[in-house]
Amino acid sequence: MVVLDRAGFIAALDIAVTQARGAGDDLGLLLIDLSNLRLINHRHGYGIGDLLLAEAGRQLLATSKLPDTVFRIGGHTFAFILPQLNTPAFIALAMNRVQRLLDGALYIDEEILPVQLRIGLAVNLQGRHSPLVTLARAEASLAQVKQGNALEIDAMIGEDDDAREDTAFEQHFSEALYDNAFDLHFQPKVDLRTGRVCSAEALLRWHLPGHGAVSPERVVQLAEASGQTYELTRWVVNRALRAMREWRDTVALPVAVNIPAGLVNSPDLANMLSGALSIWGVEPSMLTLEVTEGAVIEDKEAGFNNLLHLRELGMGLSIDDFGTGYSSLSYFEHIPATEIKIDQSFVRRILGDSRDRALVGIIVDIAHLFDFAVVAEGVEDNQTLQYLRELGCDIVQGYLYSRPLPEDELLAWLQQCDGRPGIAAN
Length: 426
Ligand code: C2E
Ligand code: MG
Ligand code: MG
Hints:
- The structure is a single chain.
- An eight-stranded mixed β-barrel has the order 7-8-10-11-12-13-14-15, surrounded by five helices.
- The longest helix has 19 residues, at 161-179.
- Helices cover 47% and strands 21% of the residues.
- The protein is built from 16 helices and 15 strands.
- The chain is elongated.
- It has helices spanning 6-23, 37-44, 46-63, 90-105, 131-146, 153-157, 161-179, 216-225, 229-247, 268-280, 293-300, 305-312, 344-349, 354-369, 382-391, 407-417, and strands spanning 26-34, 70-74, 77-85, 107-108, 111-112, 117-124, 183-191, 197-208, 212-214, 255-259, 287-292, 316-322, 339-342, 373-377, 395-397.
- It has 426 residues and is of the alpha/beta class.
- The model has no long low-confidence stretch (mean pLDDT 87).
- Bound molecules: ligand C2E and magnesium ion (2 copies).
- Residues 187, 203-204, 215-217, 220, 236, 258, 260, 290, 320-321, 377-380, 397-399, 404 line the site of ligand C2E.
């Protein structure tokens, strides 16, 4: 049995990246996943599964001419470091070779087992990425392959100016995540029935020295590109809960955090959230997760299992940017949501056209039929607010009341208006 050695792998990758950087060499990383090993274990027994792993490990080691390049880093995943790629395109050859080798040779006890391989890869040109980013990129690529998407090798090895800038940004992003350099601002949501602030949405802020503000959408893209959405979200969630914990004696304000689409289906999400809630001692009902409509539709394939689970744990669930996806009305019956947020683009159109107003009215009515609260986001003026009131909207959020504010400013603002904001002059 090939031993699991993540620590050894990370150390070797670190050395390989440092060498590549020093010599100006290109470096490749393959992640090779024996994706049906679990099935093989079940069907043929763990002994056979172990033999298979050992055989795969042996074959990979035999292919590699260099020491410290092949590691088993997961239950059924191997990493293959390819230092000194003569040309970046060589990685495609290496990948094909591994594929052929393992496809052909893994037969055990006269039985040829149908091994299914999934290979993800990352190319690190001249060692410009950190080991962490290199691994994260290879993991992201493997995740793509597992979802049935083709690898875009050309895009990985060709680097124009844009790609170079992306690379630099990804590096900054990883460092910022590591250094805790992000910030959260909070924007109040106001309940129209009571006139009181009923919660706040946490919104990510990143000031990159020498560059300025980077939009949260861009930050999420960078996290996706480098396979770090989970880590970013964990940071956001913990930062928001820490703030709630700090305010607790002054104000018990529920908070909403945004969950990126790529995480909605992840079984790790619920564990991370309940872990964080218990660390900070916050009730699940005080936390709402904002998930975009598009992501919710994707989860539908799994019968909304993940979302249901989160609801069962007691958290609120808000469908963000509602109206921009393509959900059919019948989904309403099954979506385990507590709230829908009408997208800003609809809110903006309310003023212009009576048909758009009617459309928003219909969305509000249907949402109420299914007991969802309705939030309108991006409300900037009194007239829009008036219409929203008439249409039966429950909660509004927008510059009309307040922009997203740093924590201390939010507390001062809440104190000043005693939780019942008048409307800012506009
Ligand atoms: P969103 O969740 O739909 O957030 C609402 C956006 O509208 C925020 O932009 C907010 O500042 C802006 N906004 C609020 N009121 C008004 C208004 O009256 N007028 C106008 N013009 N804009 C208003 P922001 O902060 O730039 O965030 C943009 C998007 O980035 C968010 O859209 C969300 O999808 C994403 N995002 C922000 N923070 C996070 C985060 O922590 N995690 C994740 N995954 N995504 C985030
Ligand atoms: Mg949101
Ligand atoms: Mg939105």
